[in-house]
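Response to reviewer comment R2.3. The reviewers asked that we include at least one raw input/output pair. We reproduce the pair for ATP/GTP-binding protein here without editing.
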Amino acid sequence: MKILVAGGFGAGKTTFVSAVSEIEPLSTEELLSDLSAAADPLNGVEAKSTTTVALDFGRLTLDERHVLYLFGTPGQHRFWFLWEELCAGALGAVVLADTRRLADCFPAVDFFERRGIGFIVAVNEFDDGHRYGPEEVREAVGLGPEVPVVRCDARLTSSGTGTLAALVRHLLCMSTAGSSAGSSSSESGEPS
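Raw output as returned:
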């Protein structure tokens, strides 16, 4: 099962994939340079020294038949052309939100909403970030009530796996709701 881990620049995507992956993750981290300073402003993430330039990849086995393949997306706008390829075949996504730069998660939310890909928003609780409740984040990002908002610490395996479990539950609920709507239409004689 292919799952995307998306969000803004510096939101913790590489850290999240690294924390939950059972294999040594593939990472395309490169050092930030003075040349990228204008394109990748470090406001709020001044300590950041590397960035993903293509993708992160990790794997998490649920059981002998179910494996999650995790694809972390690059956060900078100039690399978003990769998102279309990365989302092909994805079942769902975790959108990491950094409360220090909450607006940076808007493009990821919009991307998945426009493509009908189920997602949850995971508020990555950085040590120096402000703590907002899920409803405050929902309102700030403009999420509907059907999109779960969870808290996580991308550095912790247990928190990351809990976030992935929340995504899987959400996707199952969406699937069940879609099946119920389809069978209701079929029972009424309308095409589903």
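The chain has five helices and seven strands. The helical segments are 13-20, 81-87, 106-115, 134-141, 157-187. Further pairs are available on request from the corresponding author.
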